Amino acid sequence: MLDEKDKGTWQIDFYSPKKHKITSFIVNKGIKVIPSEQIFQKEVKAIEPLDLNKIKITLDQAYKKINDVLKKKFSHETPSKKIIILQMFEKKEIWNISYITTTLNLINTKIDAVKGKVLESKLQPLIDLRKN
Q1: Does residue 43 sit in the same domain as residue 95?
Q2: What is the pLDDT, as a whole number, of residue 62?
Q3: Nearest CA among 107, 103, 101 for reference residue 120
Q4: Claim: this prediction has a pTM higher than 0.85
Q5: pLDDT of residue 44
Q6: 57 with 85: CB under 8 angstroms?
Q7: If you placed Cys at 48, which of 59, 88, 119, 122 could pair as Cys (CB 3.0 to 4.6 Å)?
């Protein structure tokens, strides 16, 4: 179950393969549409379609798994912002969950959205992302 503080404002993004752009929708008490923007990729390639019928792990289940990872591996970090993405990645349906921490680190965890296995979890300073 999501914490009460996590409920409220959501940003939902939709990818247009024809335009290779993302349109964002900010959802709170209403819906605000953010104009389409180029997607962030190191190299341009098509985004694989996601078959929602294959997803067996709910957001709440994925959230519980990442909380376990946070307690075991990153208890010294305090998350302040969450980015939750359900996507196809390397031919797998995954929950790609990132936390920005109060110490300006990024904790990224990938969870198999079909089997529920934690595939990867790593911590890196946000500043390192600028170098790539």
Answers
A1: no
A2: 94
A3: 107
A4: no
A5: 62
A6: no
A7: 88
Is the domain of 100 the same as that of 40? Answer: no
Are 105 and 64 in the same domain?
A: yes
Please state the separation of Cα 92 from the chain's center in Å.
14
pLDDT for 6: 45
The verdict on 92 and 106 lying in the same domain is yes
Beta-strand ranges (E) seen in the chain are 10-16, 21-27, 31-38, 79-89, 92-101, 105-112, 118-125
Residues 35 and 63 reside in one and the same domain: no
Lookup result for tokens 């190299």: 43
Q: Measured between alpha carbons, how far is 111 from 132 in angstroms, rounded to an integer?
A: 24
Chunk the chain into consecutive blocks of 10 residues (it has 132) and report each block's average pLDDT, rounded to whole numbers: 52 78 82 76 69 93 92 92 87 92 93 96 85 53
